[in-house]
Specification:
This protein has two helices and eleven strands; from the N terminus they run αββββββαβββββ. It is globular, with a radius of gyration of 18 Å. The chain has one domain. An eight-stranded antiparallel beta barrel has the order 4-5-6-7-8-9-10-11. It has a two-stranded antiparallel ribbon with strand order 1-2. It is mainly beta and 182 residues long.
């Protein structure tokens, strides 16, 4: 009877597609040695709307409360994505106790430290992204989906809790020089 409970547990949790081996880059970013099939290998396949490579896609800054601090200090939270033609994506966030410098610049787009690396694809007006993260059982894939809008922004669905409308607007920052290294 116990083996049936084990099988039911495995089926309920699924044989999750998770990174088997990871490598750490010198600046601390973690990259899987193999990406799942969630994201197509073609970055933009017959897109009706495209992401642009001279831009950062930004949300924020937004004022929020950090609930885990005793004094529940106010923080300012901002986030941006950067895309490359070969299907790589980087997401970075900024949390500060003051609004700080905003919007991000091309130099911010070329800084990878503290970022989370991933893969993306756009098919039609749908965008899919996959990043690595930590779950209850170790490394896992974190997946996001959404729509590339006609105004050049994209909207994630479901929306991240920090940005209830889920929209990241395009900010053209000019030429960014650093190539993706994952």
């Amino acid at each position: 009877m116990k083996w049936i409970a084990c099988i039911v547990t495995v089926l309920a949790l699924g044989c999750a597609d998770r990174p088997r081996t990871m490598r750490q880059l010198p600046d601390g970013r973690v990259v899987p040695d193999h990406w799942s099939d969630f994201v197509s290998t073609t970055a933009q396949d017959l897109p009706t709307a495209r992401v642009q490579y001279d831009s950062l896609y930004i949300a924020g800054p937004r004022e929020a409360k950090e609930a885990y601090h005793r004094d529940a200090r106010e923080i300012w939270y901002a986030c941006w994505y950067r895309f490359w033609p070969e299907g790589q994506v980087l997401v970075r966030e900024r949390r500060t106790h003051q609004p700080g410098p905003w919007p991000p610049t091309a130099a911010d787009g070329d800084e990878f430290g503290g970022g989370v690396v991933g893969r993306y694809c756009v098919i039609g007006d749908r965008i899919r992204m996959e990043f690595t993260g930590l779950g209850e059982t170790g490394s896992t894939y974190v997946r996001q989906e959404g729509r590339v809008n006609s105004d050049g922004s994209f909207t994630l669905s479901p929306a991240p809790p920090e940005f209830p409308d889920g929209t990241f607007r395009r900010l053209q920052v000019g030429e960014m020089k650093r190539a993706a290294d994952w």
